[in-house]
Amino acid sequence: MNVVLPPMWFLNIDILIEGISFITILIFSILCIKNYKLTNDKKFLYLGGSFGLITLAQLIITITKAVLYYNASFIGPGGQIVIPLNLFDFVSVFYTVGFFAYRVLILFGLYTIYKLPKNVFEKDSLLVLYFIILTTLFSQEIVHIFHITAFILLLLIIKKYSDVYKKNGDNGTLILLLAFAGLAISNAIFVFARLMSFVYVTASIISLASYITLLFLITRILEYGKKYDKKKKQNGYNI
User: Fold this and answer.
1) Total structural domains in the chain?
2) Is 122 part of any domain?
3) Where are the beta strands (DSSP E) in the chain?
4) What is the DSSP letter of 8?
5) 192 to each of 141, 145, 185, 186, 199, how far by Cα in Å?
6) What is the pLDDT of residues 101-158, one digit of tens each?
7) Which of 28, 45, 8 is nearest to 214 (CA)?
């Protein structure tokens, strides 16, 4: 398996970023599903489900990285991380499955977001899932394929939400759009993460900033709900 790892000094920060991302997206997913119950609008159910997949992916990658980073057998000469590619033991299988599951869930989550507000489970969904799994298998050896695929999906999402924003002019849509733009930029930068260590760090920070943007949206939703408590019971949150 081929992975791109951060510099040694960034290991703890990297896991912290993944943990914050997990918590942020989890809260966002819960609020989306809560809004679906208030409005019975299925687009919120699908949006919550899509981010639910990404939430699970973040949980998996956080645990996987924690095992990988803190296993002393992976620390080689000069303080560099060395992954034993030929070692077929529990740990190597664990992180191989972990990274694979993370990439599949991220890509399928992005695909379902792109499909909104249409029914996600259309006839072509199984075919798309097949190509996502195939892409992920290739990315086990060529990690750039994953980030390039995610970048393309995010560009499609950005185009879609740009059209939506032009029609409704809603600030919530704009915040989502900015968050997706940040994630697209981070994935584009991750493609070049092997060149220099600061590239990985930069991409990680931008990714975190994107999730903080979503956290800002969550705060906005909560404030809206408190201020217009009676109205939200009828109309739900304004995302």
Assistant:
1) 1
2) yes
3) none
4) G
5) 15, 12, 12, 10, 7
6) 999 999 989 988 888 766 555 556 666 766 777 777 666 566 788 899 999 999 999 9
7) 28
0.85 surpassed by pTM:
no
CB of 38 within 8 A of CB of 237?
yes
Evaluate whether 62 touches 19 at the Cβ level (below 8 Å). Answer: yes
Parent domain of 135:
8-235
Q: Buried (b) or exposed (e) across 97-118, using 16+ Cβ within 10 A?
A: ebbbbbbbbbbbbbbbbbbbee
Q: Is the pLDDT of residue 222 over 90?
A: no
Q: State how far Cα 22 lies from the chain centre.
A: 9
Q: Is residue 147 part of a domain?
A: yes
Residue 1 covered by a domain: no
Dihedral (C-alpha) 30, 46, 149, 201: value to the nearest 10 degrees? -10
Residue 145 lies in a domain: yes
d(C-alpha 205, C-alpha 17), whole Å: 8
Q: Residue 167: give its domain's CATH number.
A: 1.20.1070
Residues 48-75: tens digit of each pLDDT: 888 999 999 999 999 988 887 776 455 5
Among the listed residues 176, 154, 156, the one whose alpha carbon sits nearest the alpha carbon of residue 165: 176
Q: Say yes or no to pLDDT of 230 above 80.
A: no
